[in-house]
Amino acid sequence: MSRRASGVEAVPIDIPALMGSPYLPLYRRVCETFARMIADGRWRPGDALPAETDIARAYNIAPGTVRRALDELADNRLIERRQGIGTFVHRPNFDNAMLRFFRFRGVDGAAFVPESRVVALGIAACPPAPMEALGLTEPQAVLLVRHRIWDGAVRLIERIYLPPRRFAALLDAKPDEIGPLLYPAYERICGQVVFQIEEEIAILEASPEDAAELQLQSGDLVFSIERVARDATGAAIEWRVSRGDARRFRYQVSPASAVPGGGHGTI
Amino acid sequence: MSRRASGVEAVPIDIPALMGSPYLPLYRRVCETFARMIADGRWRPGDALPAETDIARAYNIAPGTVRRALDELADNRLIERRQGIGTFVHRPNFDNAMLRFFRFRGVDGAAFVPESRVVALGIAACPPAPMEALGLTEPQAVLLVRHRIWDGAVRLIERIYLPPRRFAALLDAKPDEIGPLLYPAYERICGQVVFQIEEEIAILEASPEDAAELQLQSGDLVFSIERVARDATGAAIEWRVSRGDARRFRYQVSPASAVPGGGHGTI
DNA sequence: AAGTGGTCTAGACCACCCG
DNA sequence: GGGTGGTCTAGACCACTTT
């Protein structure tokens, strides 16, 4: 407090003003401030954060408090620390681990990015499930339907609902602007960065439409993966359901999810 | 160091001597020491840990260092902290969240514990997958085969491989000693506590044997869940595969697992 | 009132990486 | 050598829970 009186150290341009309720713990406010900057795309993946000591000086708080905030952000995979180098906004690796959970890979067993065909893109009525997940107040959303194709057949049908406010720019995008990797496209075109995913898997009988598009028999089984994707603050920004032939399904659950309350049961 | 000279404060009986390599960070050694005590069953779920200040005094280290160690153990769900009360060994809730991932629940939609029938229990040849996962040096394991039954039919077949050293006591157990909940039985009979689970899911065509036991047609689809269960130190103590009718399958993946490297890919 | 964990401070020294 | 994050110290004060 005494040091503030000198008025010498203003908050540098690259360190945002502290956000969040003053009743929250200091380290939490730092967390929220930084998560906000990342979620808003003002700090982009790969960007270097200011040094811990600089942040502490800028906010006039103890270095240990800054450290605790950064620890928490690192735990949540929003940032990455590299000893001796610095701290950086994390770049989620959703792309390269592609298709990890399919039995069916390339001929050589390697992962690859399947062909992607946009079947529909526009404003559409939004069903209750995505509407609730996305927190929409009106039953309208940007709808993107894609076929994922490999080995000469449609292997996957994706129906993707997006909040219109964040994704309006997608409607004006040309098909080749989008490309096969959607999350990088979200970032490029709409400034939305996905940091977190929740999924629910089920095995169902194929609907007649799905069966036709996937070239299955009516009554064959399909897997269904419902996904909610979230930004750095935890806000839901995408809801999708993917369906494909159940026989090609494979999935890994990492230890992290097995223990927390949110996980699953034991039998 | 100066304080040690007085020789007044010996390490109390309930605080174990510090373990782990002296080259490790102090907080890591505290972590490993406590994890060891929990894994060995010397500290059991529900037990109260000593107060942070007492631990710090006993090891002659700063309270902040102890705090960091406990933070890490709490992150890994080995302990639970309750403000104003104390810190306790965590009791994994593998039981009550039972059957979370099945479409099929009780008539009223509530979770329940299905009937359990031990089909086989003894020493058996151990296939390569469980042998490797469990780190066995000889191809022998305790094998437990169970049928899980509800609504008047066998819904699930479980083949469970256990390391003989830890689970020898299970061979002498009477059937009703084991009961429907296996992990509590491990703790009761063998002193083994499960803290972590990894699973891999696939959809397969039923083998003739599985089809017969599950009353499916040959060629019908089954889900297969391969699980590795680990103790507090991360050592694998159980390998199992569960199979059942694919049509009844449902699974949730919590956000925690979606982000870390171990998780899965995106399509 | 006493004891617990939760937050925060204000440093110190080290290991690591870069130019 | 100079800057970064990693570890550790030795406290202070607060919020919460039990007796």
> Major β-sheet of chain A, in short?
6 strands, antiparallel
Mean pLDDT of chain A: 81
* Helix/strand order of chain A, N-terminal first: HHHEEEHEEHHHEHEEEH
Spatial extent as radius of gyration of chain A: 22 Å
Proportion of residues in β-strands of chain A? 25-35%
Shape of chain A: elongated
Number of helices of chain A: 9
Oligomer: homodimer
Structural class of chain A: alpha+beta
List the helices and strands and how they pair.
Two copies of one chain form a homodimer.
Chain A: H1 26-39, H2 52-59, H3 63-75, E1 79-82, E2 86-89, E3 115-125, H4 128-134, E4 140-150, E5 153-162, H5 164-171, H6 175-178, H7 182-190, E6 196-205, H8 208-214, E7 221-230, E8 236-245, E9 250-253, H9 255-258
Antiparallel strand pairs in A: 1-2, 3-4, 4-5, 5-8, 6-7, 7-8
Chain A binds a DNA duplex (19 and 19 nucleotides) through helix 3.
Question: Which features does this protein show?
Answer:
homodimer; 267 residues; alpha+beta; 6-stranded antiparallel β-sheet; two-stranded antiparallel ribbon; 9 helices; elongated; disordered C terminus; DNA-binding
Descriptive notes:
Two copies of one chain form a homodimer. By secondary structure, the first copy, chain A, is α+β, with helices and mostly antiparallel strands. Chain A contains nine helices and nine strands. Chain A has helices spanning 26-39, 52-59, 63-75, 128-134, 164-171, 175-178, 182-190, 208-214, 255-258, and strands spanning 79-82, 86-89, 115-125, 140-150, 153-162, 196-205, 221-230, 236-245, 250-253. Chain A has a six-stranded antiparallel beta sheet with strand order 3-4-5-8-7-6, sandwiched between helices. Chain A has a two-stranded antiparallel sheet with strand order 1-2. In chain A, strand 4 (140-150) and strand 5 (153-162) form a beta hairpin. In chain A, helix 1 (26-39) crosses helix 3 (63-75) and helix 2 packs across helix 3. The radius of gyration of chain A is 22 Å and the shape is elongated. In chain A, 33% of the residues are buried. Residues 1-13, 95-109 and 254-267 of chain A have low confidence and may be disordered. At the A-B interface, strand 6, strand 7, strand 9 and helix 9 of A face strand 6, strand 7, strand 9 and helix 9 of B. The first copy, chain A, binds a DNA duplex (19 and 19 nucleotides) through residues 25-27, 51-53, 61-65, 67-68, 70, 81-87.
